[in-house]
Write a structure and sequence with these properties.
With about 425 residues, this protein is α/β, with parallel strands linked by helices. The protein has helices at about 5-10, 30-45, 65-70, 135-140, 155-160, 180-195, 220-230, 280-285, 330-350, 395-415; strands spanning about 20-30, 50, 55-60, 80, 90, 95-100, 105-110, 115-120, 125, 145, 165-170, 205-210, 235, 240-245, 250-255, 260-270, 270-275, 280, 315, 360-370, 370-375.
């Protein structure tokens, strides 16, 4: 082996030694789930917390439905991420790319290795635009948009305004998605707008959904079926979008027949609103934290009641990336966060995690301008209304006002501060 002179050794760069830091609690993700948990930990006096989050901006995504319908402004849905990082919390402005729960370490895109005593997994969900052939190219045309992107939601509104009749097509993928009601909310608002502007009679509204029904909770599904009938919407289930031909304005669906066989259906469109397929982030799918196979493949394992990982007791998960069998909504996170924090503190103190999450989720479904169906339910699919004196199985104007004005204030002012 060649001997390196001392002078050269002293001058040699140290770049081969990876940067490393260690924290008591590391949170992957600074979105709704990550910030809410961090704020609650801070309020309980937990020290040594770090958040790994690359984005400088924080978005209130539920507002994008109203942006796409011309009922809200996109700029009202975004604020600086720095304003919501709790005081005393280390913000690692980087992207997590690998998790090793055996050595308790998260690696980032820049090469930083972040060690932890406890890990909270909340990176959100991944939008897989490229899983639909031709979709990225079609989104560059004036006739295709999606409210699942901050830049595209205003385009949706222009597309609806410019539409003067023909086929308006709305899609829902066969994968889980964040806010499962969002793909149909914009459809109802578009149908109402077309009715109000006298264009409905010369329009055909189609819903191509990879799901088996309009909604997974029967009492609310019954109401939505009447909404579909009221607007005269042609709802086609088990139709999964696989390709968009932007040059000819055609949407290609893979159709699952009753016997399980597959067929292809091509539907021409004049305007198209797409909800992209979604999954856990790639680095999560590759990690030992996720299910390796089965119906929950790729999603992070978490006890449905305690939110603790079954294989790595120092790891907890919540929000869109978890395998919790409930809807992926901000309202679900609002109920999950206090349970997770209480159970994490118990584990830190050597106690058994006993707080329980009952699967509560809420989906405020806009069914027209000034109308909203507030679907609240638990793991058993039982309605769990927050307003016991109000019939939430009815479309209501007061619930519309709550979504447009009340929920954003709750989100920015209370939830992200750990107060609600």
């Amino acid at each position: 082996m060649q001997t390196v002179p001392t002078s050269q050794a002293l001058a040699a760069p140290m770049a081969l030694v990876p940067a490393r830091e260690h924290h008591r609690v590391v949170i992957i993700g600074g979105g709704t789930a990550g910030i809410t948990v961090a704020a609650r930990l801070r309020r309980h006096g937990v020290q040594g917390v770090a958040i790994i989050e690359p984005s400088r901006k924080h978005y209130y995504q539920p507002l994008w439905t109203l942006v796409g319908a011309g009922a809200a402004r996109a700029e009202d849905s975004v604020r600086d991420e720095a304003d919501f990082i709790p005081e005393g919390t280390r913000w690692i402005q980087d992207r997590a790319v690998e998790v090793d729960p055996v050595v308790r370490q998260v690696s980032t895109l820049s090469g930083l290795r972040v060690g932890y005593d406890y890990l909270i997994v909340a990176p959100g969900i991944q939008l897989n635009w490229d899983k639909v052939r031709g979709l990225r190219e079609a989104l560059r045309t004036p006739y295709v948009s999606s409210n699942y992107d901050f830049e595209l939601a205003p385009k949706t509104w222009k597309m609806i305004q410019d539409f003067d009749g023909g086929t308006a097509l709305f899609t829902h993928p066969s994968t889980p998605v964040k806010c499962a009601g969002a793909p149909q909310k914009i459809m109802y608002l578009a149908a109402d707008y077309l009715r109000r502007t006298g264009k409905r009679e010369r329009s055909r509204i189609l819903f191509g959904s990879g799901a088996k029904a309009i909604f997974g909770v029967k009492p609310f599904a019954a109401v939505l079926e009447r909404v579909v009938e009221r607007y005269g919407i042609d709802a086609r289930f088990q139709h999964n979008l696989v390709e968009v031909r932007g040059d000819t304005r055609e949407a290609v669906f893979e159709v699952t027949r009753e016997d399980g066989s597959k067929a292809e259906s091509i539907i021409p469109y004049d305007i198209l609103h797409v909800t992209p397929p979604q999954s856990a982030p790639d680095f999560i799918q590759r990690s030992p934290l996720a299910h390796a196979d089965g119906p929950c493949k790729g999603w992070v394992k978490a006890d449905k009641y305690t939110l603790q990982h079954p294989d790595f007791p120092e790891v907890f998960a919540l929000g869109d990336v978890s395998d919790l069998p409930t809807s992926r909504t901000g309202a679900a996170i609002r109920k999950q966060a206090p349970v997770l924090v209480e159970n994490l503190r118990a584990v830190m103190e050597g106690r058994k995690p006993e707080a329980r999450y009952d699967g509560y989720a809420s989906c405020p479904l806009t069914t027209g301008y000034g109308k909203l169906l507030l679907a609240e339910f638990d793991y058993d699919g039982k309605p769990t209304p927050s307003f016991p004196l109000i019939d939430t199985l009815q479309e209501r104007r007061d619930m519309w006002l709550m979504k447009k004005y009340g929920l954003p204030r709750l989100y920015w002012g209370l939830m992200l501060r750990g107060r609600a």
